[in-house]
Specification:
mainly beta; 191 residues
Length: 191
């Protein structure tokens, strides 16, 4: 049932594919709830010169980065306390590149820490894939209106990073090297 749920959610976002997932037992309060899945499908890349640009896809999670948009005030000010819950959210994503491609440019790592908590996004270029680890740590359950700007900064960075783009390019072709001949050609007779 979890596999069909993931496929349905991805399809609602316009992405077709197939999931293979497993989840911890949500009834066991002694362990954190975790959802691990592998998903295979087509995600559109945009061509730009010799590069292909690719937006890092959103991961299936109980709390996607978009979930946090409702906590952001459009005016930037807040008159009432913000209740979000002290917790750590983590998104761990590995994107496998097509065969014969390498990472061109990848997003820069992000590390922000303030009185509300921290946000970190770490990008690792491994052999044939890009690994993305995002961690949002909210260290209080309730934030006062005066503390709102700190929370808003962390959530804004999470949302900004969620739109990260990386590029990948075809692997360079390794041609056999040709060493210059140490023998001199005989002089040509011009007569």
């Amino acid at each position: 049932p979890i596999n069909s749920l993931i496929n349905t959610v991805m399809l609602q976002n316009g992405i077709k594919g197939e999931a293979l997932a497993e989840a911890t037992n949500p009834d066991n309060l002694d362990i954190p709830v975790k959802l691990n899945y592998a998903w295979e499908g087509v995600h559109v890349a945009q061509s730009f010169k010799e590069n292909l640009l690719f937006q890092i896809p959103a991961a299936i999670d109980f709390f996607t980065p978009r979930f946090f948009m409702k906590f952001l005030s459009s005016s930037g000010t807040r008159r009432y306390p913000l209740i979000v819950g002290a917790t750590i959210y983590q998104w761990d994503l590995t994107i496998d590149l097509p065969e014969d491609y390498v990472i061109g440019k990848q997003p820069l790592d992000v590390r922000i820490s303030n009185p509300a908590g921290s946000f970190e996004a770490v990008y690792s270029n491994t052999q044939g894939s890009l690994h993305v680890l995002r961690t949002l740590h909210l260290n209080q359950t309730v934030y006062s209106p005066e503390e709102y700007s700190h929370v808003a900064l962390l959530l804004s960075e999470l949302l900004r990073d969620r739109n990260s783009i990386f590029s990948f390019t075809p692997k360079p072709i390794n041609l056999p090297s040709v060493s210059p001949s140490s023998e001199k050609e005989p002089p040509h007779d011009t007569n």
